[in-house]
Amino acid sequence: MKLSRTVVAAVSAIALFAGCTKKEDAAAAPAPKADAAAAPAAAPAAAPVAVVAGTPISPAVWDLWVKTRTQGRSTPDALTPEQRKEMLDDLVRLYVAAKTAADQGLDKQGEVAARSELMSRSGLADLVAQQFLAGKEPTEEEIRKEYEEQVAKMPKTEYHARHILVATEDFAKDLIAQLGKGAKFEELAAKNSVDSSKDQGGDLGWFPPSRMVKPFADAVEKLEKGKYTLVPVKSEFGFHIIKLEDTRPLEAPPFDAVKQQVGQIVMQKKLQAHLDTLAAQMKVERTLK
Questions:
Q1: 1, 95, 141, 218 — which has fewest CB within 10 A?
Q2: Domain limits at 230?
Q3: What is the pLDDT of residues 246-281, one digit of tens each?
């Protein structure tokens, strides 16, 4: 079953600005009237963990940095002094590199600017996804329905095949001619194929068609057992000579074995439908043809 999972992550730096008031200015200002109903003063901003060329590194960024580096297994408070120093040094180096890149105008270059844009958008999109999906865990009924839909779309047969992959069509035709004269497929694969499967005589093992590029899948589905392609099959990787060894019915994995992955598909579809609804409420112009 073809299962997919989309995981989006981004780290955003937040600059903190603290205002300073001169004593003489404070003295010259009129004293505010007492107001029992006045709102309590806002809590002072937390001090940055470091400042790089005037840019503060906030505690929020530091916390996320530690979680990212430890894959969520630790927090800043749980670090040893040595670990804390090492991780903070690495974070400072990150800011130093970013500042240097900005000073050199590298952040304005096409791919770099595009990557920064995507990271920023991805981080915000991830927050929207988390907010929307909270409390929307799929039910057993939803998961089973999705499982049945996935099974219905599965190919019914899987294939055991070998192939020889070469760079040119003429060379592939020459190898096909050698096969016609009695050469062994496995030996030609081991000697001439540029694919790693050559060490197994071109053996690719068992696979569903969906695991192969389309030209390869289309060709192998048309072959009879024991036969090989009489015309080279061109794909993005080169030219293939394919031999079909055997076929067998493709059985769906048990529901319990893929229940978690299918549940993720359900959640992903819920999010996609939600975003499509939001998109319908916005003005979206697609100019790409």
A1: 141
A2: 157-249
A3: 999 999 999 999 999 999 999 999 999 999 999 999
